[in-house]
Write a structure and sequence with these properties.
It is built from ten helices and seven strands. It has about 260 residues and is α/β, with parallel strands linked by helices. The chain folds into two domains: about 1-35, no CATH class; about 50-190 and about 220-260, Rossmann fold (3-Layer(aba) Sandwich), CATH 3.40.50. Helix 5 (about 85-90) links the parallel strand 1 and strand 2. Helix 8 packs antiparallel against helix 9 (about 210-220). It is globular and about 45 Å long. The chain starts with 8 loop residues before the first helix and ends with a strand. The protein binds S-adenosylmethionine. S-adenosylmethionine binds near residues 88, 107, 135 and 154.
């Protein structure tokens, strides 16, 4: 940030806006927009931004639905934690016509977008939790008893202990035979693999029209704003919290999906 914009006092002290400061003010406003969720995209711009950022974004959701269709076609209650703008639930609603979907997310702005997306869905089919992270879900244990929990690309923002708590809560919320499907950004096993992965990720985003500065900012979030585990670490964590069946579901570039049955 330019030095003179480091405090609002600068503008007040001069009593008027400096003639050549309009551009800087716009720059300032643009850069000071408060993030309304943990992703690099504002909630209202998320649906477009995420498709320019995450390779195979839609495939990830198709795989999630497909595995649930096989393991729990009878699901009565499906909790989507970290639901974002509600895309997964929108896709799953017609596939599971008897299921009630519960949507949770810590970001109020994301929940609002999800409500907007699902506004025409009959009330008995969906329920929104108050803003809540996965690690707080046990406070809803009396309210909902899901047989399926999905957490798609939403726990990689957390530090290890918080992430363990999130997975533990998902395990505790499920009854026997319940399934957790989770996708995350993942870390390659070697530093060369990380370089290659990040370079491919950069090209993916640039080819889809993201600005170089936005792409660089996004890649700078690796291990600073999101903290990817390796595939084996995910498998170990799911086993450690007590899931009986733990499997890699899907893996490509720097995203992977897992399912775990209690
Ligand atoms: C990349 S978006 C994924 C949204 C959605 N699942 C999807 O597939 O589009 C990440 C979401 O995780 C939410 N989130 C961040 N920390 C979380 C946590 N500890 N527990 C649950 N959700 C979290 C964010 O608010 C955001 O909506």
């Amino acid at each position: 940030m330019p030095k003179e914009f480091s405090s609002v006092g600068w503008i007040k002290a001069r009593g008027r806006i400096h003639p050549n400061s309009l551009g800087r003010l716009l720059w300032f406003a643009g850069h000071m927009t408060q993030a309304d969720n943990a992703t690099p995209h504002q909630a209202a711009a998320y649906d477009k931004g995420v498709r320019q950022t995450i390779p195979f974004y839609e495939e990830i959701h198709r795989q999630t639905i497909d595995v649930v269709k096989t393991v729990r076609p009878d699901v009565e209650c499906w909790l989507d934690t970290g639901c974002g703008t509600g895309y997964l639930v929108e896709l799953a609603l017609p596939v599971f016509p008897k299921t009630q979907f519960v949507l949770g997310d810590p970001s109020e702005a994301m929940l609002k977008q999800a409500m907007k997306r699902l506004k025409d869905v009959p009330q008995e089919r969906i329920k929104f939790l108050q803003p809540i992270p996965s690690e707080g879900l046990l406070s809803c244990a009396g309210e909902i008893a899901p047989q399926v929990i999905t957490s798609i690309l939403c726990h990689h923002y957390s530090q290890p202990e918080q992430r363990r708590q999130a997975i533990q809560c998902c395990h505790q919320m499920l009854g026997g035979g319940g399934i957790l499907v989770t996708f995350e950004n993942v870390a390659p096993s070697t530093s060369r693999g990380t370089e290659i992965g990040l370079s491919r990720w950069k090209r993916y985003q640039l080819e889809r029209g993201r600005e170089l500065s936005a792409v660089e900012e996004h890649l700078g979030r690796f291990n600073t704003k999101f903290f990817p585990l390796r595939v084996e670490e995910h498998l170990d964590l799911l086993k450690e919290v007590g899931f009986q069946v733990v499997e890699l579901l899907w893996f490509s570039q720097m995203q992977a999906g897992f399912y775990a049955i209690k």
